[in-house]
Design brief:
alpha+beta; 10 helices; 5-stranded antiparallel beta sheet; 3 domains; Heat Shock Protein 90; Beta-Lactamase; rod-shaped
Amino acid sequence: MSRTAVAVQSIGARLSSALLWIAVTWGLLAALAVWLVVEHEVDELLDDALIASAGLISGLLPDAATQDAVLQQAAATVSLAPGSSRFSWQVVDRGEHVVIRSSRAPAEPLLPRHREGLSHSPEGWRVYGLALGREGRILYVAQSREERLEALGDVTLGTLVAALLVGVGGATALRRRARRELLPLDQLSAQVQHHDPMDSGTALPPAERVELQPIRDAIDELGRRLAQRIRQERAVVAHAAHALRTPLAGMDAQLAVALRECPPEATGTHQRLQRTREAAARLSRVVTALLTLFRSGVDIERRPVDAAELLADIPMPGLRLDFAAAFTAEGPARATPLPADADLLTAALANLLDNAVRHGARQVSVEPVDGGLRLVDDGPGIDPMRLQALQQALDTQAYEGRTGLGLMLADLVARAHGGRLRLGPSPYGSGLAVTLTLSEPADQRDDGAVAAGSGPNSAGTQR
């Protein structure tokens, strides 16, 4: 059954993203607020500038402004001066005729009729009218709408940029601060990773933050309960194994005597006694393996072990071991001894060989591999679908109801050494290849895949 991978999100990344969005949103809202608040203030400042400009221009015009000749002469002079199409002025007489204007001012009056004070022209100008003397002439000073919008836009843009810079800078500072605040969580993770609940002399150090203390306490309590349960299970298994060893040894001795005393002509009885003794021997090996695997502490006592010599010492009637040349060679060509716990490795190999015998194998080829060895039997093999299911059960350690005791014990021994148990079809035809590594090879790809092979269907068999 495949498991769907769920993407795990980072707290730091989520905080950083949230802070960035908050900064951008704050900048946009600040710009909107500036637009709403500053628009009125900018209009007032620009209107004040128009009023001041009108006063300045009216002061520059001659006192004889009511004399058309003087005004015409002034118009000729002023019209030669460079001007702006966004700021203009003009003097309009009582008859709505432009008497004098700036070089870029429109030739027609800015307003259709005389009007003092501030107003808007139909063409979009902001106009301030100032009466000149008593002859009905009026001075119009105007600013285009584009100029006013540009001024307001400059203020808003400057404020927006400043707000965004402040927001992004604040978000960056807060992100760095958040990362520093998350460091105690990383430290707690490292402490939990290296914490051994089975070591009663060690405990998790106090959490560096108040919010992490409940998590630390919960993990410590969980580790304590798990350690207590493991100790209880080990004690039960060890006592059960010890309690079974004596009657099993006595049973083997009694069966050996019965076989010797069995009359030669009682062939059927002799065969039944022999099968019973072999079954008792298998049970004894399982008990020994359990006792070895679940002994107190399960400390791995590594030392160089010659796999060929170890296998040769395992009694397995009816099974022939065929060792690769590397196991029988002398000198540098001989297979390198495995750094392993001899007792655990013996228990694992004994169960694998017993599996092969029970499933019809008569010969097992032993080959060296990187960090371990491979056992290839000549039995009927396993259906590819069943083989894949067994490998998945070993990879996920879902042993219950899916693997037999032999494969489970061998896999536990391999994992205790830092290795794995791999299943595959025999490269020589029918049969099963079991690769036992005691340390992960450098080029090992942990993909859990099992190569498909051919062989008789034995889907209902557990090993």
